[in-house]
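Encode chain A's predicted structure.
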Amino acid sequence: MASKLLVLACVRNESYGDLSPRPRYPSMPKYPKGFSASENIVKGSEAKAVFSVIGMTCAACAGSVEKAVKRLPGIREAAVDFLNNRAQVLFYPTFVNEETIRETIEDAGFEAKLIQDETSDRSTQVCRMLINGMTCTSCSNTVEQALQATQGVQKAQVALATEEVEVHYDPKVLSHNQLLQSIEDIGFEAILISTGEDIDKIHLKVDGIRNDHSIEAIENSLRALPGVQNIDIDTALNKFSISYKPEMTGPRNFIKVIQSIGAGRLKAMIFPEGSGGRESHRREEIKQYYRSFLWSLVFTIPVFLISMVFMYIPVIEHRLETKIVNMLTTGAILRWVLSTPVQFVIGRRFYTGAYKALRHHSANMDVLIALGTNAAYFYSFYSVLRAAASPDFMGTDFFETSSMLISFILLGKYLEVLAKGKTSEAIAMLMDLAPETAILLTLDDEGNVIKEEEIDGRLIQKNDVIKILPGAKVASDGFVIWGQSHVNESMITGEARPVAKRKGDPVIGGTVNENGVLHIKATKVGSESALSQIVRLVESAQMAKAPVQKFADRISKFFVPLVIIISFSTWLAWFLAGKFHVYPKSWIPNSIDSFELALQFGIAVIVIACPCALGLATPTAVMVGTGVGASQGVLIKGGQALESAHKVNCIVFDKTGTLTVGKPVVVNTKLFKNMVLGDFYELVAAAEVNSEHPLAKAIVEYAKKFREDEESPVWPEAQDFVSITGHGVKAIVRNREIIVGNRSLMLDNNIIIPVDAEEMLAETEEMAQTGILISIDREVIGLLAISDPLKPGAREVISILKSMKVRSIMVTGDNYGTANSIAREVGIETVMAETKPEQKAEKVKELQASGYVVAMVGDGINDSPALVAADVGMAIGAGTDIAIEAADIVLMKSNLEDVITAIDLSRKTFSRIRLNYIWALGYNLLGIPIAAGALFPGTGFRLPPWVAGAAMAASSVSVVMCSLLLKNYKRPKILENLEIRGIRIE
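Encoded structure for chain A:
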């Protein structure tokens, strides 16, 4: 699809006036005779080669090299830089190779040498790791700062919601193992998820290895294979990790080579997913919190019963109040014994977290929990010792406070981890789309199937032919080589309607084949596939912080120290007030004294404050929002794009391929003489079939409608074919002179244009259509009106945007007449026409200078400068090629409606973020004063510390649940009720 868009973007004013004149770009790909663009341009199997060209002295030399290369079949794009003596060529290896290109350059009179693409020698690598032990933004900031201080690290992003870190680093300076060690050194456990090396990497398990000699033999055999780049061996697990070039080899080749060693004793298979994966770690974390909570209940429930229930049952109370040593009772000893394992064994994780934080001069949630529970426990322990040593001490213990606090906090963390796991369900669902198995076909030289074999879906290699049965998932990205069917692509693109597929059409891995049997040729496998790219894009989006997150990060720096100060001040104020009898003794409950009352207020303050909720407010909403967007076919590249999109109040649209379909079609035919329409089009198509111009292709495609009985009609031979640049073509077909072109071509050949034809030409131009005149034997016989039709729903989308108070502007390279006509049709008032790509970017900057927050909607190719310049760049028409670096948002369905969906989803997500902050700050702003005893003087109400702990735990859970409600997002109803005019392009 991206290649199709490149072709559409390269429409030039060569033969027919100005349907869509744009600045000159590399010419359209050419194919050998017998191959159509529809069969090959969609393959996505293009390769890139860079040549050193010696002997060029000026731009004319570069131009001659470029022309020579572009004449070759299968060249997609060629760019020559004579200043640096370089030529970069994008080509289809099916038709041409590097050696042929090199020889062509030398035939043009220059010395050429194939060199390695400098971009392959990357100075930056990306590593993703799972961080175990982070509890709040203070922890994530500590990890981030430690990594950024490491030499060789260029950027580090820590996502608290996913407990992951993404590090951009220089592999020449340090390795990912050193990064893992850096995180371990600051007290957190780090698990490697992926590195940049994991692209095109397979992990194999080999059974049957007896000694080191076998391992060496396997390694040497694998290294001998073409395309193998690196091999890592884990001898303990018999695991071989192989990095390779997918266009040269693949996993089935590796398995075949391994099993051929050792007389068939060795057996290789895909390495089973280990316990180090993201999901397995998440499941293990959930289990740990669940087990800890259950064990805490085992001890806490008896403590609660002894403290709160049994004291009201006379028989049991008498036994519990039995004194053992001085004033030490049986009940106090039982509470002490039962709460100690909760405090120091089950609650050990809070001590560990607090130690790690304090060691790095920061404070987190664990510090608050450790302070609160230790204050309650050690005061109670002091009471027990004092009661045992004194015959008249009447103290009270708070063992139930510390144990119940830990139990409620563990319950809250368990619920929080459960909820956080659901925020990333979008990625899990996407990864599950890939089918587990595939049917591999073996073909003979004539293309007949000679063997079918079911294989693991991960063993598919480039150029494999795969059979897709009705109801089965498409096993790989590729194109159809046999069969017809309808494919449901909604799981990838969000497009609800099944898409018809026939020979030459592209298919996306993970989509569902609905009816017919298809044979497809795999072109992109593994990490190259659209599904893998989408997963990586969504993962990166969920890692990126939204600017609004800085608010929480700033607060977290002083939040915990401030809470500790407030807690200590609360205790001191109540203690001094009791000491100096500021309040009446009747306020003090019978079971405690003024010191203990003050202590309870101080503990309640320290445990009700929760920095976790504040840290989770933004990332959880961004995670859910980007995941929902992916399911709707709107890929949002991170929190920055999501935040900017909700502020957009001006949208700049490109015309060709954005507001219009981008493919010219014949919309009207007028004959001025009696003639059978089929015969007329046969003569016209015979003349035009030799032209590469988009308008010529539109005429030939339309002419095929009159030859429906033939799949690839053969047109009569055209003799003396001549293409007149900027005007049209001339040819002799069946001994008749055919001239097809514009008014100028007819006048240049002294052909009289009838009045009817002149009137119709004027009408077509008013309707933004291109009029093509056809002369047969020097007499104008007919006129064709060719148009690039509006996209379905374009007019309605502009109207809806206007109702959303978003201004719409069109910026295009087309002439003013065509641009104004299209703008009037869709309802856009401001038009900027005849602009070059760099001028589009300037227009965007002018609008920004005027105070607008600008979104640019373009096809992601020629509009790249404007997409980058805009506050939000939206690439429309991306299809399966979702890796458009210039865009912030990719609209995969190519529907203009999704512009509205993207803005609406952004607005809903940020409403949710604001609500999250209200939840998070509301708990603290209301809870801390209540916990400090603000209501106690007037109402006698005080918040027990264990209730404050439950409220703290609930705050994090409520924020995550609030974010999860975004999963119920529905597109605006006005889009659901929109009646879209269908346009079918033959």
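Residues 1-44, 117-122, 879-883, 979-986 have pLDDT under 50 and may be disordered.
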